[in-house]
Amino acid sequence: MATKSSPPSVSLLSSLFLMLLALSSSSSSGSMTISSHGFSIREATVAELQLAFKQNKLTSRQLVEFYLGEIHRLNTVLRGVIEVNPDALHLADKADQERKAKAPRSLLGLHGIPILVKDNIATKDKMNTTAGSFALLGSIVPRNAFVVTKLIEAGAIILGKASLSEWANARIIPNGWCARSGHGRNPYVLSADPCGSSSGSAISVAANMAAVSLGTETDGSILCPSSYNSVVGIKPTVGLTSRDGVVPITHRQDTIGPICRTVADAVYVLDAIVGVDHNDKATREASKYIPVGGYIQFLKPSGLKGKRLGIVRDPFFTVIKESGIIRAFEHHFHTLRQQGAVLVDNLKIVSIDAILNPLVSGEGKAMDTDLKLDLNKYLEGLVVSPVRSLADVIEFNNKFAKLEMTKEYGQQGLLDAQKTDGINAEVKKALLNLVKLSRDGLEKLMKEQKLDAVVTPGADFATVLAIGGYPGINVPAGYDSNGVPFGICFGGLKGTEPKLIEIAYGFEQATKIRKPPPPIKH
C-alpha cells in the first residue's frame, strides 16, 4: 500500500511557487526586447532565435530570463504554468558554453531553446510530475519520459511544467482546471474556454511564456486547445512518439505532440521527439512512417499544390453558430484552391454520428477499461508515490474534497474507470467496433476519394482521428466576433504526417492569420 500523508496547504504552495518565479526572474525585466541588440524575443520563431544566437544578438540565458519574467508577469492571471525548472538558468548557461565551444550538439535545431512540457510528462529533475493533482505531489519518477530524453539530447532546455485539465481530463472537469494551478485562462479572451487537456501548453506558447511546448492527446487534447488559443498543434500517429513516462489514459489512443506558434516550430519539436523506444512497443511499428531526413524537409510554401483535400461538412459545419466563421472557411477553401489544392466537397463519413458518440462507438467503454489498467501500471512503477492505484487516487480526492485543492469538481470519469473489470467480452466487442468504424469510415472515404487529407473547422474532427490512431494538425484560422480564436484541422491516415505538414505549412504561409493575444489586464 502507498504511504498516506496530508498534502501541503494550497496557500503555502502558491506562495512558494510565486517566490520561486520572482527569484528566477529577478534579473529579467520581462521586456519585449533585448535592448542591447534590438532583437525582439516576443513571437520569435525557433529559426529566428537560432539566427540571433549565431549572430551574437541573444544568449540562451537572456532567452530563459525573458520567459521566466513573462511567467512571473502573466501566470497569476493565465495559470498556464504549474512550476518552473529551478535549474533552467543553469541549463541556459550550459547551452551558451556549448555554443561558444562549437560543440556538435549546438548545431541542432532546438539547442538552447526553452520548452514547457505538460505536467503529465515525467522529468527526472527537481520538478514534480503530477498530472495537475496533489495526489502525485512528491512522487518520484524512475526516469525522464522518453520524449524528454530526446528533447534534452537535442539541446532543448526544459523550462517548466505546463498546466492541464487534471488527470488529462479523466476527472471530467472544466477545461483547463487542475488542483495545483487553478483554472487556466484563454489569453485572447480571459472568460473563454481554453479547451483541454493540454490547455497550459497552448496558453503558454500563445502568450509567449515559452518558445515551444509539448502536449498529449487521447481525444482532442492537442487539437482543441491549439484551436482555441490560436496556435499550431500536431497530433502524431499513435506510436510515432513514445508514451513511456507519460501518465496514461489509454495506450490505444495516447500520443505526444508539439504545440507551438508556427508550423515550422512544431515540426522542429516533432523531429526531436519521434523514434523507437523499447519501453513502448507501439513505436517499433510506427517507426516505419518516420521519413529519412526528418520532417523539416516538408516545410514547403508550395505544399498545397496538387493535394486532394476532402471537405466533410456534416456535422462539423452544422454546429457552427456564427455566420462569420462559415464565411471565413469558405474564403479559406478558396485560398486552398488558389494554392493548387483540389477540393472534394460535401463528403460524408459512414456512421459519423456513432463515431462521435463514445457511448455508441465503444470508445468510452474501452477508454475507461484502459485507464484503470494503464494508470495502475504507471503508478506501481513510480519510485515513490503517495498513491499506487486508481482506487488510491479516488480515495485521496474524497478525503480532501472539501479543500480548495480539489475544488467542488467531481471525479466521475475516475469512478467509471474504477468500476471496470478488465478486457472482458463487452470491451472486446467495443474494440472491434472501433476498428470497424475507422475502417468503414475515414479509411474507406480517403481511399475511395484518393484524398491526401480531410479538412474540417475547429477540433471536432479529433474523435474521428482518435479512435483510429490517426494524425492531425491544427492551424490558426481566424477569430470570432468576440475575439475567440478558431482553427482549421487537417487530418489523415496513419503515417501521413509529411503530407499533413506540407498542407498545413502551405495554408499557414498563404494566410498568416495568427496574431498575438491582446495585453493581459491584471
Supply database-style keywords.
disordered N terminus, Amidase signature (AS) enzymes, 15 strands, 11-stranded mixed beta sheet, 38% helix, 522 residues, 18 helices, two-stranded antiparallel ribbon, alpha/beta
The value of Rg in angstroms is 22 Å
How many domains? The number is 1
Number of strands: 15
Main sheet? 11 strands, mixed
Question: Helix/strand/pairing class, anyone?
Answer: alpha/beta
CATH superfamily: Amidase signature (AS) domain
Low-pLDDT stretches are: 1-32
Q: State mean pLDDT (0 to 100 scale).
A: 93
CATH topology-level fold name? Amidase signature (AS) enzymes
Write up this protein.
With 522 residues, this protein is of the alpha/beta class. It has a single domain (10-511), classed as Amidase signature (AS) domain (Amidase signature (AS) enzymes, Alpha-Beta Complex), CATH 3.90.1300. It has 18 helices and 15 strands. The strands form 3 sheets. Strands 3-5-4-8-10-9-14-15-13-11-12 form an 11-stranded mixed beta sheet, sandwiched between helices. It has a two-stranded antiparallel sheet with strand order 1-2. Strand 11, helix 10 and strand 12 form a beta-alpha-beta unit. It is globular and about 55 Å long. Mean pLDDT is 93; it is low at 1-32.
